[in-house]
Structures are given as C-alpha cells and as structure tokens.
Amino acid sequence: MSEKEHRSPSTLVTAAVTAVAVVVVGVAMYFVGEHSVKSAATNTASTAQTQKVKKVGILQTMSHPALDQIHQGVIDGLKKGGYVEGKNLEVTSMNGEGDQSKLATMSQQLVNKKPDALCGIATGATQALANTTKDIPIMLGAVTDPVAAGVVKDLKHPGGNITGVSNVPPLKAQLELAKKLLPKAKSVGFLYNSDEINAKSQVEHADAIAKKMGLQTKRFAVPTSNEIAQTVQIMSDQVDFIFIPNDNAIANAMPTVTQEANKKHEPVIVAADTMVKQGAVATIAPSQYDFGLKTGEMMADVLSGKTKTATTPVYVFNGGDVYINKKEADLNGITVPDSVMKNAKVIGEEGSNK
User: What is the torsional sign of CA 239, 241, 247, 249?
Assistant: First the structure.
C-alpha cells in the first residue's frame, strides 16, 4: 500500500484547498502583471505624447530693437510655458525686412511646413499670415490695433484662428508725462508713417487727447524713410515737441530722428521703451520684451490645448513703467520732476540701463 493511500480525509481536503489557493494566486498574479505591463505601456505612450515636438513658425515684419525684443520675448514665453527649443519645440523664424511681398511668400513657406502654431510680430507679418491660413492658430505678437488691421473682428471674442497681444500704448499717460516734463509746451507734432494702419489709428487717438489737454496739434506723415530727416527739421521749427507712436518705419529710423531733433534741441516723446534707449527723451509703457513674453505664454497654452484662439480674448496691457533718457533730458534743458524721477527707469547716466 502506497503513502498516498494512508492519508486521512481531512488531509486530503487541506491539500485540495491549498492547490486551489495556489491556482487562484497564480491567476491573480498573471492579471496583475498584465495590468502592470499595460499601465507601463500607457505611461510610455503618454510620456511620448507630452514630449512630442511642436513646430512653431514666427514671422517678423522687420528688424529694429523693439521687434527684436518682442521676438526674444516670444521664445522665452514659450519656454516659460514648457516648450523649449531642442527638446520639445522646433522654431522656424523668418523676417520680411519691411517688404510686404516677402512677408506673403514667407507666410506660405511657413504654412507649408505644417506648424502647430504661427506668430506674427507686428501688423504686416500678422496680416500676411492671416491671409495665408484660416486653420492654423496664429498669435498676434504685439499688433497695436488688430481690429483696424482686419485680423480680428472683436478683441474680446476673436472667434477665429487668431488671438494674442495688442501693444496699443497708453497714449493719454504718455502725453500727460510730456506735459510734466515740458510744462511750457503749447504744441505737439505727430511723426508717423502714412502707410502704417497701426500708426495712423494711434495718431487719431493721440490728436484728440492732446487737444483736450489744451495742446495745438500738427500731423507729419512720411511715406518713406527717405523723408524722415527733412520732416524732423521742418517740424522742429513748428512745434514744441515731437510725439512718435508705435511705428515700425520710424522706429527703424530712430537714430536719424534723434540726430536731427538734437540739432535744434527738440524733445522727442515716444510710445516704446526701446525708442528711449535709441535717443528719445521719455515714455511710459510696458517693455517690448514683455509684449513678446506674454505672446509666447499664450502660444504655449494653445499648443498644450489649454486654450483655443477663438475663445481667448486679445490681451491688452494696462499702464507701464516710466523710462527717462537722462542724457537727452539734459541736452534739451529739461528738469525732470522728482515725482517722475523717483519711479523712473533711467537711461543715459552712470549706473543706468545705458
């Protein structure tokens, strides 16, 4: 008789229960293992998706310090939003150098690359991109008047594939600053490019504000940069100070403007901080870099799916910092009030920004 044949009934039951338990545990471990494998695979896919390289195209209207700072701000804003060049971001940047036909051609080239989003820096570039695609998300990289430019119908409800940042300047605050610096001034001349829609709309607003402040106003529109020097000479004899809005053509020619204005000690008040660094006396405004930074952050949100262009209002900055070019103020015999100087970012003196 074998050993098996001598087992009692209770022993046989215990053995059976043990065997069943082993099978159950084995099956459970199999499913747990399979689940773990599936989870790992899912996580891997998710990680791969989050690390998918996004393609972005940036079109810049032309090169001058203000637009160059906006471009850098866009790149930094994307980085702040989690998109870094060389890791999960591929950026193609193009510059039309003020040539509208080049901007149109470059827009098509950028669209052909099938980017996830586009950015137009300044009005000309944004209009060119808007005319090329109605499907790819487009960010306004500092367009002064997006409605007048025809790229959005409503700032609060864009409703299409375009939103972003408007760099409309605080014109009233800027003219009030001019009056604080030049309390005896009775007239202002507006210098702008007649071909820039954004500049023309600013001058319309600034002219009305200046008149309400009791200033006499004159407009000096220049069709080409070749006429800027002569125009500054003429207006310096006719008005007490020059005001320049956000205007790409004039910004690109600021060294010429300040050179001619300084010959007659004619103060120049401007809309952008970069123009103060180029020789104007003062402004109050957000920095051009900050316009770009905000644009980049908004672009990152669109790339990640957090927001959509159609339902994201165009962002408009309120107020800004006071920038004073001390060297230019001294040259023009301007005594900057302590109330202005104590909060200003001073350029053109020892230890300053320039």
Answer: positive
Query: Is 324:304 a contact under the CB 8 Å cutoff?
Result: no
Amino acid at 272: A
Q: 132 vs 112, 120, 177, CA distance in Å?
A: 10, 12, 41
CB atoms < 10 A from the CB of 215, how many? 20
CA dihedral 145, 150, 154, 156 (to 10 degrees): -50
Of 351, 319, 353, 324, the C-alpha closest to 339 is 324
Model pTM? 0.78
pLDDT in tens, 228-259: 999 999 999 999 999 999 999 999 999 999 99
3 state SS for 87-148: CCEEEEEEECCCCHHHHHHHHHHHHHCCCCEEEEECHHHHHHHHHHCCCCCEEEECCCCCCC
**From CA 354, how far away is CA 346, in angstroms rounded?**
8
Q: Where are the alpha helices (DSSP H) in 117-266?
A: 123-132, 171-181, 197-212, 228-236, 248-252, 254-263
**Angle, CA 176 vertex, CA 172 and CA 177 arms, to 5°:** 120
Stretch (H or E) spanning 346:
strand 344-347
